[in-house]
Fold:
Amino acid sequence: MRSPRRLQSLPQIVLAAGLWVCAGIATEPARATDYDVRVFEGGAGWFVYDEAVDVALHVLRPADPKCHEVGEIILLFDSRAQLRDPALIATAALTGMARYAELCRALGGTPSNQRKVVSVVAGEAEPDTRGRLIGEARILDAFVSSLTGVPRVAVRRNAANTGNEKRDTVAIFSKEDDKPSAGERARNSAAQGRAAEIAEIRTTYDVALAESLAKAQSPALAGRLIGGDRARIAGVWAGSQAECANERLILFEANGTGKVEWWRTSNADIGLLPWRAGKWDLRRGTLVMSLDHRVEYDDFLGRLREAQVDETLQFELMDVTHSAIRLAATGGGLSPEALFLRGAEKLFVRCES
Structure:
C-alpha cells in the first residue's frame, strides 16, 4: 500500500489478511476485500483499502467493528494535483462508498445510502489521536448519496490551496438515458442538498452517540454492589423502552467524573442530538446535573444551533435499581427540574442495548 505507509507517525499498522480475519466474521474469502488496519492511540482505527486512490474507513472500535460505528470515508491522495481532477475525486469517493457498503453487509448491518467523504494528501497532514482529520488536514469535503438510485458525488468545499476555490458538484449517472429532465434535476438537487446536510450532521453525531453509549454500559453485579447508587445510575435511560428511540438520558463515568448527555429527537429527519450535556454528581441522595452545552436543530432557520449554557438541576433520587430510576424535582411550580422532567416526578427505565 502506498499512501498509508507514508502516514505512520501515530499508528500501528497491522495487516489483515481479509475481512473474515480482521473482524472475525464468517464470510466467504472470495467475497472479502483485503485491507490494512491502522490503530490510533485513542482506540479508533482506519480500515485502509489499496485502490487507485487509497480509501480508508474510520472505525470506532477496529477490534470489534459495527456498521453503525463506521464514520467518515477518507480519501488518501498522492498529490495536490489529483485534487484538481473532478472525475478522479468522484471515482475515489464512489469506491469508498462501495467499500463502506461491503463492510457493513459483511458485519450483518445495513449501510446508509449517503456518506461523508474527506480527503488528505499523504505525507502533508496527520489525523489526531482518535483518527479524525480536523482543521487544515481536511483538504476536501464531499458527500456521496444514492437516495434517488443514481450515485452522486457532491464536493462541498475545496480548500484554496487545492487550486480550485469554488464549490464543485460532480454528478455520475449509470447510463446516458438515466439522466433526469431539468425539472427532475431541480427536485433531485434539493433532495440531495437536504440529504447531504443530514449526512453531515449524522456522520458527526452518530459516532459521538456510539462513543457515549459504549461508556455507559451498566457495571456488573459486583460493581453495582461495591459502587452503590452511583454505580447503579450509570447507563442509558428513557421514560419507556419505546421512548429510547427518540430520547436517551446517558450517564457515565469518565476519569472519575460523572458525565451526563440528554439526547433528544426534535426533528424526525435529523434524529438524536445532544440536547443538553455536562456533568453529574450524587450528593446525599440528590442528583445534581451541571449542564454547559446544548445542540438543537432549528426548523425555522433550517440549521443546527450549538451553544454554551449554564444550567444546574437538582433531583431527589427517590429510588434506583438496576433497571429503573425514579427522580423528583426539588423545586416548586415551574422549576427548571420539573420542566426538565416534564413533571414533578419521573420514572426512567434502562434502555435495552
